[in-house]
Specification:
Radius of gyration: 16 Å
Oligomer: single chain
Strand order of the largest sheet: 2-1-5-3-4
Number of helices: 6
Structural class: alpha+beta
Number of domains: 2
Distance between the termini: 55 Å
Shape: globular
Number of strands: 5
Length: 161
């Protein structure tokens, strides 16, 4: 029988309790139990970046994180970054630059960018490329993604894109 655990953590600013198998992966908790479908399941091995969320402001692939490790942590998903009515500047920049084609990988990329911008407000292109390096995009919108990242940085700094 699986080891059940009651784990308390914060998701998008709201306290939650999950009583599940302690080894249940965060991506499944988000999608199946908390009904937060913005976090995508991609490879399931921590290699594609589609499932990236922020855990205590650090970008982490949620397919690698067991429920037990979340006790007392703060998790932010794409739903907690902004809303359709009030998108985060990162989300607005990706829309303005038309940086998504299929859109499957984009939420993870935006979360990684949000984590990077919490560490440094003005990353270099090399830092942007390094942060996004683990993300796989099969659509080939890499230049638009970089343009969106630059636009988001400019917006957050209050300078023209």
């Amino acid at each position: 029988m699986a080891d059940q655990a009651l784990v308390q953590f914060t998701i998008n600013g709201q306290a939650v309790e999950c009583a599940l198998d302690s080894d249940t992966l965060l991506v499944y908790v988000l999608r199946n139990d908390l009904k937060l479908k913005g976090t995508r399941f991609g490879c399931g091995t921590g290699n594609c970046g589609s499932c990236t969320v922020l855990i205590d402001d650090q970008p982490i692939q949620s397919c690698d994180i067991p429920l037990w490790s979340l006790a007392g942590k703060h998790v932010t998903t794409i739903e907690g970054l902004g809303s359709p009515q009030t998108p985060h500047p990162i989300q607005s920049a990706f829309i303005d630059e038309q940086a998504a084609q299929c859109g499957y990988c984009i939420n993870g990329m935006m979360m990684t960018l949000a984590g990077l911008l919490k560490k440094t407000s003005d990353p270099t292109d090399e830092e942007l490329l390094a942060a996004l390096d683990r993300h796989l995009c099969r659509c080939g919108t890499h230049m638009r993604i970089l343009n969106a990242a630059r636009r988001a940085i400019a917006s957050l700094k209050g300078t023209p894109a």
